[in-house]
Amino acid sequence: MKSLELFFADTSRALNVSSLLWAARGVCLTAVSTALFATSACTTTEHATETRPVLRNSSPGTMGELRIAETSLDSGNIELATSLFDKIVKADPTSVPGLTGLGDTLYAVGDFTRAGVYYQKASSFDPAAVGPRIGIARVAIHQRRFDDAISTYQGVLARVPGDPMASAGLGAALDLKGDHAGAQAVLRKALEANPGDPLLSVNLGLSLVLGGNPREGANVLLDVTRYPGAPPQARQDLALAYGLLGNNEAAAEILGKTLPKASVQDNLRFYDIQRTRSDYPADHRASVVTAVPATTIQASSVR
């Protein structure tokens, strides 16, 4: 693809990454692919739930509220999550998990500027905390400050080698800059440390697709979608791969499970346009051999 910027756009749930993460809570590369679908309302940010460490200034008295707040955020109850995180911060203005949580709630509704303020404040109280740093990097990606995001993710990985969220985010940032080879190297290395991680695998598959190798990308995504717990965006990315390979029938079968017929046709026309504009080798434009799996995908939690 000539420029990944062409494919980057915010959607109504703004990296629902509850991808991150981000939490997924890091920015999933699937957020990039969502922009390809005019009718798809999720930049990932349908994301996998993250097991977050207890930060050092979390008191036993607030841990129950913190867990409820995080669960509420993961389930999409932003109002309750915001109320609980706010209560935690009022009780302790230096609470890193509380401040990070408020940043996550703002991030979830697309208020990236204010989210960044809370992440920065949390990081100022505990520079070693991973959560706020990943939040800062995610905000930088949404603000198209890709170099800042890359630097921040690299800093996290220097302290926590192989961290899947930071690796996924770093791969996304590199892809958005057009460095597909670099992104794929990061994601493959992370998968060595985290075999089978669905977020990393989905991002690798999409990176391969956007980097001009939709056949290999489709094979990676097929492996992910075989499992019930696969991120929902995996199927959308697989539809993209099929579409760029010219296999509109398979792409339509996938899209038809969640989109109305008119929207499916709009996406297929988009794939056709991108396929003719792309400089893929001729052998990459052949149909995918493997059939589309019929596995039902469960929605992942988002942030």
Automatic annotation (TrEMBL):
Q: What is this protein called?
A: Flp pilus assembly protein TadD, contains TPR protein
| SUPFAM superfamilies assigned | TPR-like
Q: Does the keyword Zinc-finger apply?
A: no
* Keywords, ordered alphabetically: Repeat, TPR repeat
